[in-house]
Amino acid sequence: MRERIVSVDIFRGLTIALMILVNTPGTWSAVYPPLRHATWHGYTPTDLVFPFFLFIVGTSIVFAYRNKQPSPAVYRKIVIRTLKLIGLGLFLGAFKISSPFILPFEEIRFPGVLQRIGVVFFAASILYLNFNWKVLLGIAITILLGYWVWMGFIPIEGQAPTFERAANNWANYIDLNFLGTHMYKEDYDPEGILSTLPAIVSSILGIFTGLVLVGPKGNKIRSMVLMGVGMVLLGHLWDLVFPINKALWTSSFVLVTAGWANLVLALIYYFSDVRGLSFGSIFRYAGANAITVYFLSSFISSIFYQITDEAGVSLHEQLFNSIFVHQGLSMEFSSLLYGLTVTGFYLLLGWWMYRKKIFIKV
Q1: Cα dist. 103→92, 96, 157, 185, 187 in Å?
Q2: Domain extents for the chain?
Q3: Which residues are the signal sequence here (predicted)?
Q4: How many CA within 13 A on the CB side of residue 24?
């Protein structure tokens, strides 16, 4: 029987819970700063959440494929899972509650969180199956350096490139020209085309941590801490010339977020796998159906925003205002309370599915 690394399951479920929390405040007009994304450059705790999930995707790839060899059957399963993830993401971007149940084509957003997870999973899985860690390290370094050179030094139609939110930003330029109206914003998409390349490295760095965890006995915590501290420091040094930026998924952002992921995972690993302390089970349960729980939270949230009364007030607003907004409570606290309630509901759903042995593999 394959040994379970409890900390990986807890980390995955905790990340999903945080993804739900930051995506479902009571009102977007009243959110505590740590639960907001950075306006452009820089990062907040919220900006760590999605790269943490891509990181643990890489770690999980090691556990899933360490005893497998490249073969048509293995590749077929990888492709099928990739298409499922992309399909679910496109569905979320296209669905509307009224007939004909799909947005006009020009309004459908093509990129998205699940689409990026699908593409990153595909690339990282194929790379892991075919290359050793030394080649993977070379690929990661090449992508991160190449992305910096592309974004910072190659002119765009005669103009010097920029890292700012502008037309002469390579990531924005490519998205605008290839995706057109199918973007999150009119001028950029945080899960856009070019920035998917460094996002793959987020998963590759997770693969390295997975290799540490399944490797021969040794001080695995020390290895994760050294990798974590090293990447955080290197990322912040790189920030001086290539700003940390989630929307662009810059190379410095990749290193800093993977560094913090290693440090957080090392902490959980110490208490759960080394000390044997029993905690975080509720996150393990959600992590067992991570994609299903995330998809349901996004889908139901979309429905709650789309159902409106005659005055145009959404069901989401009605629930928030009638249950969570009270005199004496700040709007930020009420908004957080709503998000925590929603997150708690999906954690309980994950627990119920786990108890009923319902595991939906996406």
Answers
A1: 10, 6, 34, 16, 20
A2: 1-36+277-362
A3: none
A4: 30
